[in-house]
Amino acid sequence: MSSNHQIASGQARLAAKVVGDGDPVVFLHAAVCDSRMWRAQLDAVGASNKAIAYDRRGFGETRAEMEDFSAVADLMAVIDAVGNGAPAILVGCSQGGRVALDTALRYPSHVRALVLIAPAASGAPEPIYPPDIERLMARLKDAEQAGDLDRVNAIKAHLWLDGPLQPEGRVTGEARRLLLDMNAIALRSPPVGSNLDVAPTFHRLGEISAPSLVIWGDLDFPHIQERCRHIATTMSNGSGHMLTGTAHLPSLERPTEITGLLAEFIDGCSDRRA
User: Fold this and answer.
1) Within 13 Å and on the Cβ side, how many CA atoms surround 150?
2) pLDDT below 50 — which residues of the chain?
3) In sequence order, what E strands does the chain have?
4) Cα 139 to chain center, whole Å?
5) Which of 112, 146, 196, 251 is within CB 3.0–4.6 Å of 87 for a Cys-Cys bond?
6) Contacting residues for 85 by C-beta, under 8 A, at least 6 apart
């Protein structure tokens, strides 16, 4: 059983999809995607939980006026509207992981557990790129300055889906088509304002006591892999899992494997609570 919702937060109407019933599991997408990156996981997790995914401002089907906003407040609006009033398990990839970490520090009683896939974290060290990646980042900057959004989209697919040190086009088929479609919407979105959640969290990771699983791929950016190891070992109740042969978006590239890891972790959280 699935349903679609429009959830008010400030001037925004956040487009959310809910599958199933039970304890809430909320999915937070990456900044090159929208909630569709979780399609496979949503159906599987929704078989025994209430799986919730929504598009943040500037992504997918969410509609937002220009205003400064809090991504954490938007997430809390979603949890309040459809979360059954229970603490949620947050599943966040990349920028979605940053929102999950910000929320776990600000509202610990509302967060039961965290699954962080290649998470960003405010206050993390600035990346130092090896020369091959530096050249790709320079090409991306040129395309952005030229306003060539199709070129920007293609380079971002190389960086985030294939992996920055892998051949362009390593990942093909539906995963690539979906990523290019999701990111095309984000690239062409009118400005939505600034996210006000800027307080650094990287030095506060040890304060998060919720059970946490950090997942990353060995084809992702080297600095992101290093950050993931640090987060997994610094969180007081954290564990890490490296996937081989995948980059930054394993829910698209390896949906069955991610679904299995999620199901196992969620079952473990339920066992602990029982």
Assistant:
1) 0
2) none
3) 2-9, 12-19, 24-28, 50-54, 88-93, 111-117, 212-217, 238-243
4) 25
5) 112
6) none
